[in-house]
Amino acid sequence: MDRETFHNCCNLVKRQGQQEFSSHFVDYIEKDISYSKFFKNYLLSNQPCMFSRRFTEDWNCRKQWVTEEGKPNFQKLLQEFAETEVPVANCNTKEYNANPKQIMPFKEFIQYWREYIQNGHSSPKGCLYLKDWHMMRNFPEHNAYRTPIYFSSDWLNEYWDTIEVDDYRFVYMGPKGSWTPFHADVFRSYSWSANVCGRKKWLLYPPGQEEFLRDCHGNLAYDVTGPVLQDKDQFPHFEEACQPLEIIQEAGEIIFVPSGWHHQVYNLEDTISINHNWLNGCNLDIMWEFLQQELSSVQREIEEWRDTMESWHQHCQVIMKSCTGIDYKEFASFLKTIACNRISFLNSCPETASTCESVASETLCALGPHHAAFDLQRVTQILEMLLSNEDFKRLEPSALSFKPDDLLQEIREAMNSIM
Description:
The chain has helices spanning 3-9, 35-44, 60-64, 74-81, 106-118, 135-138, 155-163, 284-301, 312-324, 328-348, 362-367, 369-387, 390-393, 404-416; strands at 27-29, 49-51, 85-90, 101-105, 128-133, 169-174, 179-183, 190-197, 200-205, 245-249, 254-257, 262-267, 271-278. The protein folds into two domains: 15-206 and 242-278, Sandwich (Jelly Rolls); 284-416, no CATH class. Helices cover 36% and strands 17% of the residues. Residues 13-18 have low confidence and may be disordered. The chain starts with a helix and ends with a helix. One of its GO terms (biological process) is positive regulation of translational termination. Residues 136-295 form the JmjC domain.
């Protein structure tokens, strides 16, 4: 990030409810653009876009996992992953508004997939879809692909890599006809998805439109193309929803899905894709708003026990974490990790990021000190909101391993070095 972009972004405000989105087209990025342009036009404005296959043509997975005819190379994939246990969903079965998953050996899934194709893309086992496979975490030596610079400011995976608990980098493999039901991504994060081979159809709705796609009980639609949505008794507001943004993604192309955009995805052919969920300073406020909404929902659900449970507020945090994967305590730790990495970078890195590689991570060096300063500014804004939040104040004093006020002071001192 350059100095001009940094100063233009210093007064970043929430975007939700302030943008108008077109449902008729999406920007197509054919050739390299500057990071600053992508940051301004798509991250800050929370707008979708598509990158051409040029951005993935040198990936090892596109060379090795795909046949000359553009189909999945089952033989090569079996050589690499035959005995690996992988998560597989059944697209023909609905369970809690999602497809139920099972774990099976990779070679068993490939055998099913081959038989599925031979049988005219049908099987008595249903339509199985390998999804949410942590291939990169389990096989880092494969160097299957390289994250484009535009998606490299990835706090979500930076944090979970640090604590070595989880990550949000996935491989998806599925036959023609496999699909993912209507949803928004974890923590209302961004996502990017690259087709190694095959084609997908995306249906995307801008933030807020999902409220028209709830049934009379407040539940989100499972399939936004289902005939049941035409029933006004069950989906009373469906007619108020805008038409979705419909995108066909070809082999090699990368789609950027903005924060809070609900979507439904179909594999039009036998398809392999790389998918990352990620967030950073641009959509951190959306994540914080989402967490507050999730906690409020939990509190409403168990409101009747409030006066009979001494630790009611702590129980709400426990339930929230079981449902979303994070609570206020871990969110604070997440902010601390991101801040400390950037403070260390600014304190040890000279003005030219190209000479920093020995003292800071490759990503922070590539993005530069002004990006680190922007990140710290955003952490400061959300951390101040967190400290004034009544539910956060109710956490046990011993819950945090650090003092937020001390962290704020450290951030301010680091910021002074670049301002």
